[in-house]
Amino acid sequence: MSNTPRLVSGYTLDALTSLTPPPVIAKRAPTTADTGYLVGTAWVYTTANQIYFLTSVANAAANWLLVETGGGAGAFSTLTSTGATTLATTGASVNTFGNTTGATSVGISVGTGGFTLTGAASSAITIGTGVTTGNVSIAAAQTSGTLNIGGTGANTGTITIAGGTGSQTVNIANSTGGKTVNIGTGAGINDVTVGSTNTTSQTTIQAGSFGLILSAAGAVSVTPATNTSSTTTAVINTNVGVATYTGQTTASTSSIVLTVTNSIVTAGSAILVSVSTLGTNDAQLTVTRVKPATGSFTVTCLNNGAAAVNGNIILTFWVIAV
Predict the structure, then answer these.
(1) Where are the domains of the chain?
(2) Which of 21, 154, 193, 227 could form a disulfide with 38 if both were Cys (CB 3.0 to 4.6 A apart)?
(3) 97/103 Cα distance (integer angstroms)
(4) Hey, what CATH class is 225-321 in?
(5) Are 303 and 283 in contact (CB under 8 A)?
(6) Rounded Cα distance, 317 and 320, in Å
(7) Model pTM?
C-alpha cells in the first residue's frame, strides 16, 4: 500500500472542506505496514466480519484498533465493569487471568451473593500448584459457619491432605481455643488408621485429667512384636510384645526364670505380664516375680500344676511406663 495519506475533500458552501475518509474494504486484516491512510480510517475485513480503525502512525508503523462487537480477539490494558460481567461462557476456550511476574496480584471479592468455583464432572481443579515456599490459606479469617472440604453427598474417590514426599508438619486444631475434633465418627462403616508402621515412626495419643476413653462394641486389639526362642531368653525391643519359649520342661513345684531383652526397659519400668502354657499336661505356671533392669526384665514362674511343662510357654507383656 502507498505510504502517502489520501486526503479526502469536498466542495461545500464553505469552500474546500475535509470529509471523513472512506473505509477500506479488504479480505484481510490490516497490518502495521498499512500506513498510507488518514488517522480515523475504517478498515472492513469482510472475510472475518471485523472492523479496524487507524488510531496512529508512529515510526513508520500503523496502529489499527479492532472494534470488538462479534467476540473476536482483542487486547485491553484495563477492563472495568460496573454491572454484571460475563466472560468466556460459550464454546471450549482456554482462559488465563493474571500472571506470575513480579508483584502481580489478582483479587476476587464478593458480597452476600457468594462465590462459586466449579467445573464439569471430570474437571481437575488445582489451587496453588506453583507455590513452593509461600502460603496458601483457605478461610483463614472465618469465625463462624461451616467449611467443607470434599462433598457431603454419596461421593467416592480420594481426598489427600499433605500427600507429598517431603518432610512436613500437619497441624489440625492445635490452637489455644477449645475445639471438638471428629475423625471418622459418622454412622457409616469407617476404617480409620492413625500412624505408620515405618521403622522409626512414633504415634502419641495424649489426654488431660478427663482421661483417655477407648470405646468399642467389638474387639480391641493391639498388634505386638514377637520373638520365638529355644532358650529362656527372648529379644523384643518394643512396649508390647509376645515371647514364645520352646522346649521347656519345668517340673511340678519347680520355678523357671524367663528373660526378655528389651532396650526400652529401665530399672524403674512398670510392666504388665501374663504367662500361659500350650501343652496338654497339668502344668500351671504362676508369675511370682517381675524384675525390671536396664535393657531387660525377668519373669519368675512357679509350676503349681501336677505335671511338668510339655508345650510352648507364651509370655505377653506391656511396658506401661519406662
Answers:
(1) 9-67, 225-321
(2) 21
(3) 15
(4) mainly beta
(5) yes
(6) 9
(7) 0.58
